[in-house]
Amino acid sequence: MKIKNIKDIETFLKVVDECKGDVTLTSVYGDKFNLKSKLTQYVAVSALIGDHGEDLELWCTSKEDEMKFLQMFKENPEMV
């Protein structure tokens, strides 16, 4: 799912931490950020709040995890 305007990084990363499967952000340039890695989270956060924040796509390996993000987006519609 495409994401944009992730202003509440804390809420976003809290959902990532609750996920059981892999959570990945990909950019239109082919960059892939594994959000389960704390180090990679720092790099991804800079992409989220930087110039490419609207060019990212979120991928979850688990449908259960995907539902967590859908609920978060439902509560924060400006993020999608």
Describe the protein's architecture and organization.
By secondary structure, the protein is α+β, with helices and mostly antiparallel strands. 44% of the residues lie in helices and 19% in strands. The chain has three helices and four strands, in the order βαββαβα. Strands 1-4-2-3 form a four-stranded antiparallel sheet. A hairpin with a 4-residue loop joins strand 2 and strand 3. Helix 1 runs antiparallel to helix 3. The longest helix is centred in the C-terminal third of the chain and has 13 residues, at 63-75. The mean pLDDT is 87.
Summarize the structure.
Helix content is 44%, strand content 19%.
Highlighted features:
80 residues, 4-stranded antiparallel sheet, 3 helices, globular, alpha+beta, 19% strand, single chain, 4 strands
Q: Average pLDDT across residues?
A: 87
Structural class designation? alpha+beta
- End-to-end CA span: 8 Å
Strand order of the largest sheet: 1-4-2-3
Count of helix runs: 3
Oligomeric nature of the chains: single chain
Residue fraction in strands? 15-25%
Radius of gyration: 11 Å
Low-confidence stretches: none
Helix-strand pattern: EHEEHEH
Number of strands: 4
Gross morphology is: globular
The biggest beta sheet reads: 4 strands, antiparallel
Percent helix range: 40-55%
